[in-house]
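User: Quick sanity check before I run a bigger batch. Here is a single chain. Can you write out its predicted 3D structure?
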Amino acid sequence: MKSKGNTMGWLFASPYLLYGIVFFLIPLLWSLQLSITDWNLISPEYAYKGIENYVKALQNPGVQAAFGVTFKFMAAFVPLVIVLSLIVAGLIHGLPKFKGLFLIGFFLPYLSSGVVSAFIVKGFLSYNSPLNAFLRGTFGLDINWLGSPFSALFVVAVIIAWKFTGYYALILTSGFESINSEIYEAAAIDGVNARQRFFRITLPLLYPALFTVLILSIGVTFGIFTEVYQLTGGGPNNATNTWQMEIFNQAFKNLQAGYASAVAIIASIVTFISIFIIRKLLELWGKRNGWV
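Assistant: Done. Predicted structure follows.
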């Protein structure tokens, strides 16, 4: 029976395992090989360079900018999307009915195309857009939204937060639903105010859902590409130059596939280390609240 159960388990898991091998494991191994070559993406021949690509990447201003930009996006995007998701989840949780309908409405941006969203925002923030015309005519403000390092990064962070808020709110709503109402009733009897109730009861009890949302949102910041590519191209002055933009530019614009593979490997290492450290910090918070 145990052998039969193991066989059935592997059988049901095989589609995902096959997908992972074809689209993740094989490309990863190929990238590792390419990262020590000078392949130009066109020629069938290439020479091995050892760790030369890695040394060159670590000294490249674009790669260094991508490292800093990723954490800037994290500092802007993660708090914003968490706060918005908590607000949306809290409002939907408090509805007497039609919760599913509202959740679907907030979830729809997650299904939208990043290219389409970026084009709409680009038109909305253009010089002759109604918004900028209103700001110039009413307040005398002439804002170059995508030409300033700070505002360009913030605009991209807001777009991505808008896209993911509904998805994360769906996870947090399930967390709200799992909290026993009797806990709030007991807290009310003890005279707990709204602020204490949120920070001392709701947030600790939301730890499993918050843990998931935080890890997912942090992972998103290491894969930002579409919005940056369409809106800023990594500019101005590398202010929005993400890892993905740097890899794309080196591989498909400069035709340095070997070097781009080295950048991709470095980005993967930074991603895994960053998420591991943050996960450990979150587990410390969970342990303090009795979850781990």
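The first helix runs from residue 2 to 34.

User: Great, the batch can go ahead then.
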